[in-house]
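Checked the freezer inventory, then went back to the computational side. Two predictions to log before the end of the day. The first one is the construct we discussed on Monday; recording sequence and tokens without edits.
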Amino acid sequence: MPLVRPGFLERANYEKEVQVEVPNTKHTKGKVPNTKQSFANTLEARLESTMLGLNNVETAWSTLRDTVCSTAMECLGPQTRKHKDWSDEHCTEIQQLLEEKRRVYKAFLDDPKSTAKKYALKTARSNIQRRLREMQNSWLSSEADEIQDFANRNDMKIFYH
């Protein structure tokens, strides 16, 4: 006869006090100063209501995971990007290029045996790829020039930021 009833240890682990440490990262900047306490209180309330009747360990772990993720998303919000992507500056131009490719592709699908439409699609794809490479290269070149300018001015704070 076991000294501990089955499932006791799993429930005991869930019933322990939840210690939540929210570091001061990009997730919490600009938020209310009591984000840590709000997250801890909300998580505790949700865990109390969801973990009471769970007997299966797999179900309990998946419920715990889902509860923590949904609470974090609600209290902390989604992660924001700190650095821009090269395509952010050229978004409208990229959309126009893709719309042109979609138009040519749709025409090709209407008549797939047409060699002229197949050639037009191939040309459109290569032109889009070439233009996207040019945009990316020009963006990378301007970023490199900016970083070089910071290095020339000995502005190391911005250089590594």
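The second is the one RB wanted added to the comparison set:
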Amino acid sequence: MRTPAKAIEALAPNTRDARKVAYSVERALALALALLLIRSSFAHLGNPYYFLSTVYAYEIVGMETGRIVAAFVPFLQLLIGVCLLGRWWTREAYLLTGIIFLVFLAAQASALRRGLDISCGCFGASESLRIGWRTLLVGGAALSAASLGAVLAKTSSPALVSDPASSGETQ
């Protein structure tokens, strides 16, 4: 089984070129995930009562826990999005992004299994999608992107890409 790092090396045999490709892919993933998280965060912060009602609609948590989740999640999404954009604590941000989407997928699967026909609550009331295969695919893709981003963030960094001394090459 090929790891993402091996796949990138196959695309760019030169180690420095492979790191550049890995870094570019990692940054693209960070941008996409950050925009997704920040967009969702702003929708939840802009209409907190709708988000709270969405949390309750999943019928997983009680009243008090629901209020805590609805108050905490939008700020966590915003913080993670900013960290991904700013390259601060990148691997940790990817890990938290993965956890958020894993929990989101589990909540959706649970609601679908119980026959609930509810909005996913992803982007507020204006873009209310019903939970289903489409929302599960989006969540799964985001979870996969976060996982790949975490792997690439470990193997590629700006210093390794731009510094010829770090790769053992001379100009």
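For RB: Residues 15-46 form the longest helix (32 residues). The radius of gyration is 19 Å. Let me know if you want it refolded.
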